[in-house]
Amino acid sequence: MKTLILSAMLLVTTTLAVGAQTVVAAHGIRARSIIAREDLAVLEKNTVGAIAEVADIIGQEARVNLYAGRVIRASEIGTPAILERNQLVLMVYNIGLLSISAEGRVLGRAGVGELVRVMNLDSRLTVTGRVRSDGTIEVSS
Questions:
Q1: DSSP 8-class letter at 84
Q2: H-state helical runs in the chain
Q3: Reduced to 3 states, what is the DSSP secondary structure of residue 75?
């Protein structure tokens, strides 16, 4: 019985290892650069915590400098930023039929769909909101 279980575990391990791959930077990629297919290479090995699919990285923005031959992790990339630190934006709060808007200052870089801290210019309070595709910040309770 132990031999059968060991053989099954060996077969599963071998099967997983054959299709394993890891995406690495083909050359140095500077932070804030948009990543293209030619910036990437694939290694035929599995690395824990690394991204395995090229399609998951293309079009993303490098959040940090990526070095040639080094694996790329999800925390090192993100959606391309459309808002820069200190940029003025419109904050919108909607609840039912009530809509409140105010001007704010972004406290960090952020892309569409990401959460970002914003300082309300009137009250000087800091709130967190999600970036919309039009560049406004949707604040929720």
A1: -
A2: 2-18
A3: helix
Strand 110-111 and strand 137-139: the pairing is: unpaired
The answer on pLDDT for 5 being more than 50 is no
In the chain, residues under CATH classification 3.90.1210.10 are 2-78
Q: Distances in Å between the alpha carbon of 87 and those of 41, 104, 123?
A: 35, 8, 17
- CATH class as words, domain 2-78: alpha beta
CA angle centred on 118, ends 114 and 119, rounded to 5°: 175
Burial 121-136 (b: 16+ CB within 10 A, else e): eeeeeebebebeeeeb
- Count the helices and strands in the chain (H runs, E runs): 1, 11
- Tell me the whole-structure pTM to 2 decimals: 0.69
CATH 2.30.30.760 domain position(s) in the chain: 81-139
Q: How confident is the model at residue 8 (pLDDT cuts 50, 70, 90)?
A: very low
> In a 10 Å sphere around its CB, with 0-12 CB exposed, 13-18 middle and 19+ buried, how is residue 57 labelled?
buried
Q: What is the CATH number of domain 81-139?
A: 2.30.30.760
